[in-house]
């Protein structure tokens, strides 16, 4: 027999359905490959930063797949209990895996694993895990009474920050694209945005009336998306979009009727994909939705071929595809249906990173730098004098694949030869330029 809370939920659900007519669907995603690879729910799935691999966590195993065809590249077994989150470092060398151990209230544990050797390098608390965009840091949080987000330096394992988020439990964490902010989703219906350098809270975002279950930054770092779900207020399972600079709530999307499990921005930041369900346990009416960010319009709604639930989801860095993990252990990669209208022209993407000569050159006092990326990548563009001393950082953030440019004014510098250097993933190149006044 359902308890009073579940009965109340069902009544709310029926009322919402009656008012909105939401039980419509648009079939199943356009699947490229779908493999039942886990013995339990796939609670975490994501693309690698270069988009060539898919990383999934389900049961007591993490798996790494070839994104293009679903070939299983590696299985990493041996975790003490079901994985809640997995994250791969930007250079694909390390895996962070978080899971719950112990009886209620359970504790959270994270292992940092050398993928090539299969050895555990570090063992920390916290069952929700994430590498920073440049791979220099790893954050862990959550697991029962663990209300801290803790950040460690990857090179030596040293703790560089610990941020208390009580009294609520932590349900998800996310780094901003520039790696300067760590966000924590909480069961107090709020999100904390922390400045990593100072260890202070920039904003506490309030507006949900149920547990915040998932968060994701937009590629440019200007927005944060959050999804809610739970039993406290079952009719409030919305998605909210926030402006990061001042914490302003920009808009609220209808979300999913019972739970928003996961959200992910597209590479160009114009759409948001979400997975969730429209009913309580047992999992009923699972669906995947794609939203237009600018006005919150629901563009696409999939309600078939999802098993009992789609628990985790991620857009590919190049915007061509998205992946999702299901409650029956299946991992799937499907085509982004809006690629041709809102994403980059993939056929024009270069095969490797390219840095072009600045123009004009010589210049006085303004010049333009152009570079091309084969996929979304964390990029730094810096200016040096002829002695190799750093003068300015022009770019330090994740940028979309394709051609990018940056205009720079050197009015504060004297005439002479200067250097500019681009770093993106494993790529690094330096070029000369001449300022003539």
Descriptive terms for the model:
437 residues, 35 strands, globular, 4-stranded antiparallel sheet, Immunoglobulin-like, 2 domains, 2 helices, mainly beta, Methylamine Dehydrogenase, Chain H, 51% strand
Overall description:
- This protein is globular.
- It has 437 residues and is mainly beta.
- It has 2 domains: 23-336, 7 Propeller (Methylamine Dehydrogenase, Chain H), CATH 2.130.10; 347-435, Macroglobulin (MG2) domain (Immunoglobulin-like, Sandwich).
- The strands form 9 sheets. The chain has a 4-stranded antiparallel beta sheet, with no helix packed on it. Strands 2-3-4-5 form a 4-stranded antiparallel beta sheet, with no helix packed on it.
- Strand 20 (239-243) and strand 21 (249-253) form a beta hairpin.
- Helices cover 5% and strands 51% of the residues.
- It has helices at residues 4-20, 339-342, and strands spanning 31-36, 42-47, 53-58, 61-66, 72-76, 83-88, 94-101, 107-114, 119-125, 128-131, 137-141, 148-153, 159-164, 170-175, 181-186, 190-195, 200-206, 212-217, 223-228, 239-243, 249-253, 259-265, 271-277, 286-292, 298-302, 310-315, 321-326, 330-335, 354-355, 366-373, 377-385, 390-399, 402-409, 416-424, 427-435.
- The longest helix is centred in the N-terminal third of the chain and has 17 residues, at 4-20.
- The model is unreliable at 1-24 and 340-347 (pLDDT under 50).
- It contains 2 helices and 35 strands.
């Amino acid at each position: 027999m359902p308890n009073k809370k579940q009965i109340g939920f069902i009544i709310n659900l029926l009322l919402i359905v009656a008012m909105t007519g939401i039980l419509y669907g648009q079939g199943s995603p356009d699947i490229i490959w779908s493999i039942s690879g886990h013995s339990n729910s796939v609670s975490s799935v994501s693309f690698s930063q270069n988009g060539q691999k898919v990383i999934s966590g389900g049961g007591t195993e993490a798996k790494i797949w070839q994104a293009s065809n679903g070939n299983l590249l590696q299985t990493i077994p041996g975790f003490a209990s079901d994985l809640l989150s997995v994250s791969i470092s930007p250079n694909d060398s390390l895996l962070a895996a978080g899971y719950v151990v112990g009886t209620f209230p359970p504790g959270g544990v994270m292992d940092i694993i050398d993928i090539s050797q299969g050895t555990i390098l570090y063992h920390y608390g916290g069952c929700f895990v994430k590498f920073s965009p440049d791979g220099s840091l790893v954050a862990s949080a959550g697991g029962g009474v663990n209300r801290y987000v803790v950040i460690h330096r990857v090179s030596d394992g040293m703790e560089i920050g610990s941020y208390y988020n009580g009294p609520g439990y932590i349900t998800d964490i996310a780094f901003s694209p520039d790696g300067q902010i760590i966000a924590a989703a909480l069961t107090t219906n709020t999100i904390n945005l922390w400045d990593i350098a100072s260890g202070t809270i920039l904003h506490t975002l309030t507006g949900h009336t149920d547990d915040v279950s998932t968060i994701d930054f937009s590629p440019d770092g200007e927005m944060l998306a959050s999804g809610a779900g739970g039993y406290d207020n079952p009719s409030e399972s919305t998605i909210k979009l926030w402006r990061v600079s001042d914490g302003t709530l920009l808009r609220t999307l209808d979300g999913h009727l019972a739970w928003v499990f996961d959200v992910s921005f597209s590479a160009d930041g114009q759409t948001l994909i979400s997975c969730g369900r429209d009913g309580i346990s047992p999992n009923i009416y699972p669906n995947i939705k794609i939203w237009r960010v600018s006005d919150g319009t629901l563009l696409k709604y999939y309600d078939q071929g999802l098993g009992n639930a789609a628990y985790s989801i991620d857009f590919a860095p190049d915007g061509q595809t998205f992946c999702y993990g299901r409650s029956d252990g299946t991992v799937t990669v499907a085509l982004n249906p809006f690629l041709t209208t809102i994403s980059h022209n993939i056929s024009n993407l270069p095969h490797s990173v390219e840095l072009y000569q600045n123009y004009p050159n010589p210049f006085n006092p303004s010049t333009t730098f152009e570079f091309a990326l084969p996929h979304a990548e964390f990029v730094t563009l810096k200016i040096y004098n002829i002695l190799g001393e750093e003068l300015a950082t022009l770019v330090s953030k994740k940028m979309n694949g394709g051609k990018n440019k940056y205009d720079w004014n050197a009015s504060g510098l004297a005439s002479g030869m200067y250097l500019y250097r681009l770093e993106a993933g494993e790529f690094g190149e330096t070029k000369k330029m001449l300022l003539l006044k």
